[in-house]
Amino acid sequence: MNDFVFYSPTEFIFGKGVTDQVGEHIAKRGYKRALLVYGKGSVVRTGTLDRVKKSLAASGVEAVELAGVRPNPEVGLVREGIELARKENVDVIFPVGGGSAIDCAKAIAFGVPYEGDVWDFFSKKATIAECLPIACVLTIPAAGSEGSSSCVISNDELGLKRGTNSNLFRPKVAFLDPELTFTLPPYQTAAGVTDMIAHVCERYFSGTGSSSLTDNIATGIIRALIDEAPVALAEPENYEARANIMWAGTLAHNDIAGCGLSATPTSRAGGWESHALEHELSAFDASITHGAGLAGVMPAWMRFVWRENPARFLKFALQVFDIEPIDETDEAIEDAVTAAIDELQAFFVDLGMPRTLGEFGIAPEDVDKLLPTLKANKGEVFGGFKKLTLEDAKAIYLSAF
Question: Where is the Alcohol dehydrogenase iron-type/glycerol dehydrogenase GldA domain (predicted)?
Fold first, then answer.
């Protein structure tokens, strides 16, 4: 086990009906004026936003609203939110929604005290030093943004999708009410589960060793998702399934699944290769759901890199799918690893995720269009488990068709 620093300051308030308790908790923390950040209508249609506003009002917390966050949130709305937050003198940023709303809110929160343009943080021209506090109501378990140090924003003008990391913008409090997820469309549920599994795998295949305890936590999260996702799709109002999926999403990305696997104690475990490859897809076409893109990219990445450390993939195969090689020959090892990767991809497909990138309407000839922005974001060589060149990235993309 490598040295590590684990930091998770978020208070998680989990359970039935906690949506109606937000005002009490927000007021108790001394916040008086909240900027509500949400998407394009689902939290309005389901009544969730009204419940949050009613609870805030009952506790004397005023609310200002910023609507219209899209999937793969765009920096233009972030800039609008920064100006609104300054104008209205809010003291807490309060997203109601999934990872897109929360990431948009995070960028607003660290953009408000900054005198320059918020994109400076994503282009590495500035370092986050201050941030308004964030509270959130989670409605779409997927990104894990309710407890993570990650924030990903798109810039349509530049054709880029970039992330930044800081413990300063981890939410102070997150409200997790599994009943809010009963109305999620099957595709969103499936894409969310895929994203969670990818978050765990990025850490598990960090390329910097292993920890028996952390490995069991990581693969236990994946096994739970494999068990619960089909139940949630078949029975959308099954509380236990929805609750386990919601909590798995948080644990998959608050760094607990990577403790002891990072190259340096204060860094996040993993090279995040699959996420880097997928970000170019959803930057190229913002209609591509992040989790769905990962379903197409991550198995292709696994097939390309597993020979770098077969033992690690064999451990994954055993811990997640109970697959072992029949003997120690190279052929048997390859069969076992390939079977595990095939099982993982089959699970994604059974949930309704795409098997190939072509299902997004992307053609092989589009791959060359992804490489310049991948280079701008990750450089000529990137990755942790196996160092990848841009030619390697191209080969992975093409193998996913």
Answer: 9-178
According to the CATH classification, is domain 184-399 in 3.20.20.210? no
User: What stretch of H or E contains 229?
Assistant: helix 212-234
Contact 182, 139 (CB under 8 A): no
**pLDDT tens digits, 98-134:** 999 999 999 999 999 999 999 999 999 999 999 999 9
Place of tokens 């607990």: 256
pLDDT digits (tens, 9 = 90+) for 286-317: 899 999 999 999 999 999 999 999 999 999 99
Alpha helices in 306-389 (DSSP H): 310-321, 330-351, 367-378
The residue type at 329: T
- What are 190-231's pLDDT values in tens digits? 999 999 999 999 999 999 978 999 999 999 999 999 999 999
Residue 310: closest CA among 343, 334, 286, 327 = 334
Query: Same topology for domains 17-176 and 184-399, yes or no?
Result: no
* Backbone angles phi and psi of 87, in degrees to 5: -60, -40
Residue among 395, 159, 100, 152 at smallest CA distance from 285:
159
Residue 162 has pLDDT above 90, yes or no: yes
Q: Are the beta carbons of 191 and 221 closer than 8 angstroms?
A: no
Q: How many Å apart are CA 182 and CA 180, to the nearest integer? A: 6
Q: Are the beta carbons of 336 and 310 closer than 8 angstroms?
A: no
333/192 Cα distance (integer angstroms):
31
Supply the pLDDT for residue 48: 97
Contact yes or no for 390/375 (Cβ under 8 A): yes
φ/ψ region of 376 (left if φ > 0, alpha if ψ in -120 to 50, else beta) reads alpha
Identify the pLDDT of residue 211.
93
Give SS3 for 382. strand
Domain boundaries, the chain: 17-176, 184-399
134 secondary structure, DSSP code: B
Pairing mode, strands 11-14 and 135-138: unpaired
Yes or no: say if 189 and 241 are a contact pair by the CB < 8 Å rule. no
Architecture of domain 17-176: 3-Layer(aba) Sandwich (3.40)
Q: How far apart are CA 256 and CA 265, in angstroms?
A: 13
pTM over 0.90: yes
Closest CA to 374 of 305, 274, 277: 277
